[in-house]
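User: I'll paste a sequence; please echo it back and then give the predicted structure.

Assistant: Echoing your sequence first, then the prediction.
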Amino acid sequence: MPNIARWRHLALALGLAVAAVACLSACTATPNPTTATATAAPKVVGATDAPTIVPNDPDLRKDVTMTSCGAAKGGWQAGGKIVNHSSTARGYHVEVFFTSLETTVLGSGLVRVHVDAGASKAWKIEDKFTPAKPTVCVVTGVS
């Protein structure tokens, strides 16, 4: 009986060794270069020219809404509407930062829009940069 037990242990050890070698060779094998697909993601870089001081007037900001934020050719865009609730014509400056979720500024833009008294007008800002996934549009100032 002792010889049979010894042979079983030897067979089990040999089977485990064969399985380990097979696993190691499969796990470290180099993929076939004709079937491997490697897609490098575009490098997202923070903006180096974003303004550090952005004027903002809370009263004018109430007139501005952002209704779109999305990809544009070579970058990103934001847009919206300005409703001038006053009885006089006004010039609006709308500033937008395009950021990653971690609030890294990737791009920015400024648009100047003249809106007659009691009227509304659309606005749109675009900037060229490599967007993050996702990219967020933030109205940083209205003046």
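Residues 2-27 form the longest helix (26 residues). The chain has a mean pLDDT of 79.
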